[in-house]
């Protein structure tokens, strides 16, 4: 990932964009999506935001008792200390933690909701290890809500080789197409519906899985519930 994503200038640019988001339909859709996932809990819940950035979704969690925001960028976390719509945050406690998504540790069963918007299968790989770590952090019946960049996104350069490989992958029966699909998904930096289902199988039941279009990409968007 580019080092520029962690510097002060990028964090300020990102934070400035927060102030324009109320007029953004994709942002409004994501807020509504997170609010819907939050309202599926019958009691106050503890949430973990993986890749929280400036904390632009902390307020979109009605019923949250606590929110833990993790990001690798210290400048981003400085901005997250004063997040957008701070007056609408319902959580009694917001904790900010600097760390890498691939190495940070939390206690087993520490959270009811783990969510990640615009990070997994975009800036960080979504793979079996990530799913295993999230499953360990969740309590039984907890939820994992996340977005991915879909490999069919118009934002991904459709080179002749990628178009050819995509066509071939659609006619090769599973699981013989696995090595080709892994390359098309850039080893976890993109994920389509099939890949999401494969990764969650055995640990989660998918409650919703759909596509949506942001300002930059075509995405998958998923809410899954950990098995009891």
What is the compact description of this entry?
The chain is 29% helix and 25% strand.
Topology:
Layout lengths: L7 H11 L6 H14 L6 E6 L13 E8 L2 H7 L12 E6 L12 E6 L11 H10 E12 L10 H10 L8 H7 L8 H8 L3 E10 L4 E9 L2
Parallel strand pairs: 1-2, 1-4, 2-3, 4-5
Antiparallel strand pairs: 5-7, 6-7
Could you give the distance between the termini? 36 Å
Q: How many β-strand runs?
A: 7
Pick out the low-confidence regions. none
- Calculate Rg over CA atoms: 17 Å
Describe what you observe in this structure:
The chain is of the alpha/beta class. Helices cover 29% and strands 25% of the residues. The chain has a single domain (3-151, 189-226), classed as 3-Layer(aba) Sandwich (Rossmann fold), CATH 3.40.50.150. The chain has a seven-stranded mixed beta sheet, sandwiched between helices.
Which properties best describe this structure?
about 230 residues, alpha/beta, Rossmann fold, 7-stranded mixed β-sheet, 7 helices, about 30% helix
């Amino acid at each position: 990932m580019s080092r520029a994503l962690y510097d002060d200038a990028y964090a300020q640019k990102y934070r400035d964009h927060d102030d324009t988001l109320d007029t953004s339909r994709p942002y409004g859709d994501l807020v509504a999506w997170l609010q819907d996932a939050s309202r599926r809990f019958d009691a106050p819940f503890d949430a973990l935001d993986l890749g929280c950035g400036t904390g632009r979704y902390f307020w979109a969690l009605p019923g949250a008792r606590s929110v833990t925001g993790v990001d690798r960028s210290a400048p981003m976390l400085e901005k997250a200390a004063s997040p957008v719509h701070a007056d609408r945050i319902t959580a009694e406690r917001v904790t900010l933690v600097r760390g890498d998504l691939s190495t940070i540790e939390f206690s087993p069963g520490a959270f009811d909701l783990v969510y990640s918007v615009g990070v997994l299968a975009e800036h960080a790989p979504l793979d079996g290890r990530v799913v295993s770590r999230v499953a360990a952090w969740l309590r039984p019946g907890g939820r994992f809500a996340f977005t991915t960049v879909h490999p069919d996104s118009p934002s991904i350069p459709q080179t002749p080789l990628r178009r050819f490989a995509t066509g071939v992958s659609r006619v090769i029966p599973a699981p013989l197409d696995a090595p080709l699909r892994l390359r098309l998904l850039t080893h976890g930096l993109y994920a389509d519906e099939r890949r999401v289902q494969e990764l969650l199988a055995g640990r989660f039941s998918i409650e919703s899985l759909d596509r949506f279009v942001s300002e930059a990409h075509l995405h998958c968007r998923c809410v899954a519930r950990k098995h009891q």
